[in-house]
Input
Amino acid sequence: MSDNDFDGRLGVVAGASKGVGLATAQRLRDAGGRVITVARTPPGVADPLFVQADLSTTEGVASASAAVAAVGVPDVLVHVVGGSAAPAGGYAALDEDLWARELALNLYPAVRLDRALLPAMVERGSGAVVHVTSIQRRMPLYDSTLAYAAAKSALATYSKGLANEVAPAGVRVNSVAPGFIRTDGAEHLLARRMREGGVTRKTALDELMQVLGGIPLGRPAEPEEVAEVIAFLVSDRAGAVTAAEYVVDGGTVRAV
Output
C-alpha cells in the first residue's frame, strides 16, 4: 500500500492497542485513511476515533458496533483481538471456564463484530475484511495453548466460509496467520522463561523458537511486517484475492 492509497476510506481495527493491531492501524493511517481503533485499553495519546470496548463480551461488541455505525460504513475491517492466558499442563489443565474464555477472546469477537458490521458493507457492495488467526491452527502446541489453537482454527474455518458467502456482494474476506511475532506478549513470555530458567534473553529466545521447531529465517517477525501483509490484502492491489490465508512465520510451517 503506497502513500495516499487509502485516502477517503474508513477502516476499523479491532484489538489495536498494541502489537499487530497497533501497527496495522498506523499503517492504514500512513496510507491516508481514517481508522477507528477498538480495544480494552486506551492508547497512550488522544485518539478521537478510539472506541473503548471489551470485544470478548456481547455488550462490548454492541457498544463498539454502534460507535462505528455512527461514523460510517467501514471500507476495511481488521480483527486482531486474541491471546491466551491458559496455564501449562495440556488438556487436563483446561477446564470449562478456560475453554469458554479462550473462545470468547479468539473466535467470538470476529464473529459478532462481522455480524454487526458486514450487512452495511454487503449492501454497499464493497469492502475488505481480514481475520488474524495463527499458525497454531496448523501446528497446535498442546502444553499451554491448545484451546487458543483450537479457537484460531475455528476462526480460520469461519473466515473461509464467510469469504465464499459475501464475495458475490463485492466484499473480500481473507486471513493472516502469524507465527512468532515480537510483541509485548512475546517479550513477557521471554522474561518469564529467563526468570524461571535463569537463562539469558538469547537462550530464552532460542528455546522458544525451538519449541516451534525452529524458524528458518532465524528471527521472529515484527508487528509492522504483519501489518504490511494486512495492508496489501485490504488494498485494491489485492482486488482478486479472497478466501485466502497468508502465513507470516519466517518459514516455521514446513508443510505445503
